[in-house]
Design brief:
The chain is an alpha/beta fold. The chain is built from 8 helices and 10 strands. Helix 2 runs parallel beside helix 3, helix 3 runs parallel beside helix 4 and helix 6 packs parallel to helix 8. The radius of gyration is 20 Å and the shape is globular.
């Protein structure tokens, strides 16, 4: 049994790596990569992926069964609060009342940076309607705290732009968000390789959500396995506590007392 679970909306989650389902070559590659990642929570773009709303087309649920994974419907492709709320209401119907959702309201199609005004509006509505909202947001500590105060169950600041693979560009803001949060902080967007995921966890993030870094790797299944190990190693390093940095001062690893002269 996992002695260090992620507690999300009051429930323990074994894996701190959350993964997406887009940009894979086919459903079979999606299945293999998600299995290799060890993820328990899998996010699904309701506007782009069939989970039953198109009965005559192949369904993602055939390879990602809801009895094995926790599906996290998201609002990718939404640019207004109204569209995001409508999309998640549909998801709740399709998934028989499933309350856990990922909210993202984008500002423009070029950067995919979050529109925080619309995000705040949508979050307030969804929380009042009983949704458990995990929310994609900018790395502004004030707005992140406001989303928590509205009742969001997880704050998900970007590390860098969605799909950019640029890694964590502003660890200082991320650190402030982590220090001030009483709900899980999960890095969402910008991770490019395993070291990025490990750094996020070493900073104290509760988890990492990624899609492109795995799906667009040369070998997605192998990268999924690497990301699993990186998240686990980063969490262990955070719990262990790193040694202090010593500028301009060396410290020998072996004792110097009693040396033969």
């Amino acid at each position: 049994m996992n002695q260090d679970p992620l507690i999300l909306a009051g429930k323990p989650v074994r894996s701190r790596l959350l993964v997406g389902t887009g940009k894979y070559a086919d459903f079979e590659q999606t299945r293999a990569a998600i299995e290799a990642s060890g993820a328990d929570i899998v996010t699904v773009a309701i506007r782009r992926t069939n989970i039953g709303q198109h009965p005559d087309e192949p369904s993602l649920l055939d390879v990602i069964p809801p009895d094995r994974y926790t599906l996290l419907p998201n609002t990718a492709g939404c640019y207004t609060a109204q569209d995001a709320v409508r999309t998640l209401r549909l998801a709740r119907e399709l998934l028989e009342g499933h309350p856990l959702v990922k909210l993202e309201v984008l500002g423009d199609p070029h950067t995919l940076f979050p529109n925080m005004v619309e995000t705040l509006q949508a979050a307030e509505i969804l929380v009042k309607e009983g949704f458990q909202v995990m929310v994609y947001c900018s790395d502004d500590p004030i707005l992140a705290k406001r989303l928590e105060e509205l009742g969001c169950v997880a704050i998900m600041p970007l590390a860098s732009l969605i799909g950019s693979g640029m890694g964590i560009l502003n660890p200082w803001n991320l650190g402030i968000i982590i220090d001030n949060a009483r709900v899980p902080v999960i890095v969402d967007a910008g991770v490019g390789t395993a070291s990025d995921a490990a750094i996020a966890m070493e900073l104290g993030c509760s988890g990492v959500l990624m899609n492109t870094a795995i799906a667009q790797a040369r070998h997605p299944v192998r990268m999924a396995a690497a990301m699993r190990k990186a998240v686990e190693a980063g969490r262990e390093a955070y719990l262990a506590g790193r040694m202090p940095k010593k500028t301009y001062q060396a410290s020998p690893s072996s004792p110097t007392d009693g040396l033969i002269r």
